[in-house]
C-alpha cells in the first residue's frame, strides 16, 4: 500500500475503534466510520466488504494493544496471567463488542475471514509465543498442540461470556487456568 492508503487504512481503523468503544458494533456503521475518519465510503469498501469486516480488524488491533504478553519465565504464571488478562478484557465493555462481532461473523461469510485473520489468528499467534516458550523450557507437554492448549485455556472464557452462566472474575479465571493447566483427573 502507498503511504496515503496506509494512512487512510489506519484512520478508518482508529475511527472504528472509537465507535466500537462508544456504542459497540451497532455504532460502527460505514457512514459513521467514514464521517469519523474522513475517509470516503468508496475507499472503505475498497478495503473491506462491509462494516463487520472493518470492525473485526479494528477490534483485533484494540485487543492486541490492550493485552500485552506476560514474560515471567514460568509457563504456569505466564499462561495463567494471560487467561486473567483476557478474562478481564471480556468482562469489561469490550466483551459485549466481542460477542456482537462473533455473532455477526457467524452469519456473515464475507466478514468471517476478517474476524479469523485480524482477531483470532493474531490472538492465537500471541498465545503461541507463550506456548512455544513453555515447550522450549520443558514446562508443558510438547505432544499437546498449541491449538488444543489455546482452546482449553481460552474457550471457557468465550463460553462464559456468551452464555452468561458464570462470571468472568479474576478468581474464576484463575480456577479455569489451573484446571486447564493441571488437568481434571485426580
Summarize the structure.
The protein contains 9 helices and no strands.
Describe this structure in words.
The structure is a single chain. By secondary structure, the protein is an all-alpha fold. It has two domains: 3-49, Orthogonal Bundle (Arc Repressor Mutant, subunit A), CATH 1.10.10.60; 60-182, Tetracycline Repressor, domain 2 (Orthogonal Bundle). 77% of the residues lie in helices and 0% in strands. Helix 5 packs parallel to helix 8 and helix 8 packs antiparallel against helix 9. The longest helix is centred in the first third of the chain and has 25 residues, at 3-27. The radius of gyration is 18 Å and the shape is elongated. The model has no long low-confidence stretch (mean pLDDT 94).
User: What is the CATH-assigned architecture of the largest domain?
Assistant: Orthogonal Bundle
Rg, Cα atoms, Å:
18 Å
The domain tally reads 2
Average per-residue pLDDT, rounded, comes to 94
Low-confidence stretches: none
Shape: elongated
What is the strand and helix layout of this fold?
Blueprint lengths: L2 H25 L2 H8 L3 H7 L3 H16 L8 H17 L1 H14 L5 H25 L9 H18 L6 H13 L4
Helix pairs in contact: 1-2, 1-4, 1-6, 4-6, 4-7, 5-7, 5-8, 5-9, 7-8, 8-9
Amino acid at each position: 500500500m502507498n503511504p496515503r492508503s496506509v494512512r487512510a487504512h489506519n484512520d478508518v481503523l482508529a475511527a472504528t475503534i472509537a465507535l466500537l468503544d462508544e456504542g459497540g458494533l451497532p455504532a460502527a456503521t460505514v457512514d459513521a466510520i467514514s464521517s469519523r475518519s474522513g475517509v470516503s465510503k468508496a475507499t472503505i469498501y475498497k478495503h473491506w466488504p462491509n462494516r463487520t469486516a472493518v470492525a473485526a480488524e479494528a477490534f483485533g488491533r484494540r485487543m492486541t494493544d490492550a493485552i500485552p504478553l506476560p514474560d515471567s519465565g514460568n509457563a504456569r504464571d505466564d499462561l495463567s496471567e494471560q487467561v486473567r488478562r483476557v478474562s478481564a478484557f471480556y468482562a469489561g465493555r469490550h466483551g459485549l463488542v466481542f460477542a456482537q462481532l462473533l455473532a455477526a461473523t457467524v452469519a456473515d461469510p464475507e466478514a468471517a475471514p476478517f474476524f479469523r485473520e485480524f482477531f483470532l489468528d493474531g490472538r492465537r499467534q500471541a498465545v503461541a509465543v507463550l506456548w512455544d516458550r513453555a515447550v522450549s523450557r520443558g514446562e508443558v507437554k510438547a505432544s499437546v498442540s498449541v491449538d488444543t492448549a489455546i482452546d482449553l485455556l481460552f474457550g471457557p472464557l468465550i463460553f462464559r461470556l456468551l452464555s452468561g452462566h458464570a462470571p468472568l472474575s479474576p478468581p474464576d479465571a484463575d480456577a479455569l487456568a489451573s484446571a486447564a493447566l493441571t488437568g481434571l483427573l485426580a
